[in-house]
Amino acid sequence: MLKPKASPRLISRHFTSALATYQPQQTLTGKLLSLLKQCSSTKLVQQIHTQMIINAIDKPNFLLHRLIDLKDFDNASLLFSHIPYPNEYAFNIMIRGLTTAWQKFNLAIEFYYQMKDFGIRPNNFTYPFVFIACGNILVLNHGQGAHSGVLKSGLCMDGHVRHSLITMYSRCGELRSARKVFDEISERDLVSWNSMISGYSRMGYARDAVALFGDMRDAGFEPDEMTLVSLLGACGDLGDLGLGSWVEGFIVESEIEFNSFVGSALIGMYGKCGDLSSARRVFDRMKKKDVVTWNAMITGYAQNGVSDEAIRLFNSMRKSSVNPDKITLVGALSACASIGALDFGKWLDTYASERGIQNEIYVATALIDMYAKCGSLDDALRVFEDMPQKNEVSWNAMISALAFHGRPHESLSLFKRMSNEGGAAQPNDISFVGVLSACVHAGLVDEGRQLYDSMSSSFGLVPKIEHYSCMVDLLARAGLVHEAWDFIEKMPERPDEVMLGALLGACQKLKNVDISERVMQLLLEMEPRNSGNYVISSKIFANMKRWDDAARMRVLMKQRGVTKTPGCSWVEIENQVHEFHAGDGLHFTSQDMCQIIDLLNEEMKVEGYVPKVDFL
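Above: the chain's sequence. Below: its structure in C-alpha cell form.
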C-alpha cells in the first residue's frame, strides 16, 4: 500500500502530536490501533500503515477493516493482495465489503472460492454475504453450491444464514426452495417472517405475501417497518386499496416514522391502486423528500396517465435541489411519450447525456419509446444503435416503433437481427406482438402466418390473446373476415374487445353484415358502455339501408345512458402541453389553434388529401 521507506516527515502534524501523547503504559501498537479506529480518511490510514511498517507491526486485518469501512476499494484490494496468508477474518471482511460497500458481487463470489482454495472453511460470517451476492446477480447454481456447504458445515440452524438463504432463493425465483428453508425454521423470529414476505412480494407473489402476513399476525408477531413496506408492495400489485389503507392507519397508530422508506412505499401503493389524491396527501405530508420519494409520486402520475402533473412535479423536484436519477427520467419520459411532449423529451435526453446515463439500459429504452410515440423515429433509432447493451425490452421497443410508424420491413429485419445477434435477448411474446403488428400495418398475411406458426415451433412460446388479436386484425384488414371469424371460433381463449373491435371495423369497411352481427352481439355483452360499438353497428346497418336496425342501435344506446366520448388531443407550445377536447371552445388559445388547423387542412387539400368521413 505504501513504500516501507516512506519518510516520517510526510506524517501530518495532527497525527504526530496525537502519537506523542500516548502514556508510557500504552504500547505503540495499542496507540496506533486506537488512532486507526478514529481515522476518517484514507490518508490517515496510510500514515498509520507507514508507522506500522517502520516499527515492524504486522496488523493487516485492522487496516483492512478500516479501509473497508471507508469504502476504499483500491487500497483495500491492494492491502489484501499483500497479505501472504490471509486468514478467515480477512476473507470474511473482504467478502462483506465487496457485497455491501462496493456491490461487486461477482468478485465476492470469487473471493469465496479463493477462501476455500486456501483451505479455510467458510463459516456463519461468510455464507450470508455469499448468498446476498448470489441473489443480486441471480447465480442460482453458486447459491445452491454454497447451500450444500452450509449443510455439510452444520450451519443450517444459524439465523443469519437461513435468512440470507431465503432471500437468495427468492431473488433467483426459487420460491419453493425459499419456502422450504422458511418452513424448516422451528423457532421463527420477525426477520424470518420478513425475509419470506419480502421474497413473495418482490417476486410478484402478492397473494402469498398477504396470506403469510396473516399467518405472521396469527403467530403473535407485530409487523415492523420492513414488514409493512413489503406488504404495501403486495397491496399495490393486487390493487387492494382497503388493506393498503389499513396499513397506513397502522403506521399512524403505531407512530412509525414517515421516512422515505415507508412514505415512498405508501405513495407507490396508492399510485398502483389509482388513488392519486391519497398518494399526493402522503407525499405532501413528508417533510423530507429524497429522490426515492419524488420518484414514487412522479411514477404514480405517469402510470395513471396524469402526464402533465408528472412533468410539473419533475420541474418542482429540480427546483427543490433534488437531482433526478435514472428512475426519475424513466417516469418523466413515460409522461412525455403519453402526451407527445417532444421538446421536453429532447431536453431530458440532453440531461441524461450530460450526466452520463443516456445509454443506461432503462433510460435508453424509455428514450426510444418517447421518441417513437412523439413521431421522431430517427432519434429513436439513434438511441437504439448507440446502446452498448440491449435487453429484450430495448429490442421490442424498437421493433414496435418501426411497425407502428409504417416501416414494417425494417421491423421484420430488426426482429431477425434480434434472433441472430441478440445473444441472451431472444424474441419473447412481446417481440411477436410487435412484429405481427408490422405485418398487420403492411398487409403481409403470409409472413404473419409464418411468424405466428414459428412462435411455438421455433421459439417454444404459447400464443396469448394479444397474438390472436394481431392475427384476427391481419386477416380482417386483408378482407378475410370469414377466416378471421373461424380463427376466433377455434381459439382456446375467449376473444377480447380489441380483437372484436378490429373485426367489426373490417366488417364495416366491407359492408359484411353476416359476421358483423355476430361480432356486435359479443361486443355489446362485453362492453355495454362503449359508445363506439353502438355507433359502428348503426353505421353498418345504415350502409345496408336497414334503417330500423340502425335506429334501434341509436335508441338502445340512449336507453342505456351511453354517451359518445369526445375526442381529445394535446398540443405542445413553448414546452407547455395544452389539452383540447372536441367542441371545447373555452381554452384561451382555442381560436388560434383552430386557425392553424384550418390552414393545415387547406394545405392537405392542395396536396390531394380527401378526408374519409364514412367511418366517423
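The first strand starts at residue 568 and ends at 573.
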